[in-house]
Amino acid sequence: MAALEDKKALISNFFSLSVLQALNMFLPLFTLPYLVRILGAENFGLVNFSLSIIMYFNILVSFGFELSATREISINRDNLEKVSKIFSTVMLIKILLFIFSYIVLTLLLIFVDKLSEHITLYYVTFGFVFGNLLFPTWFFQGMERMKYITYINFVSRVLFTILIFVLVKESDDYIYVPLLNTLGTVIGGLYSLWLVFRLYKIKIVMPNREDFILHLKESYAFFLSRVANDGSRFYAITIIGMSFGNVIVGYYSMIEKLYYAFMSLGGIVAQTIYPYMSRTKNITFFKKTFLFVVLASIALLIPIIYFYKEILLLVFNMNNEIMGYIFLIMFSGTLFGVINALLGYPLLAAFGYIKEANISLIYASIIYVLFITLVAYVTKDIYIVSFSLVVYTLASVGFRVYYIKQKQLYKTQ
Question: pLDDT for 322-345, tens place per residue?
Answer without folding.
Answer: 889 999 999 998 899 889 888 887
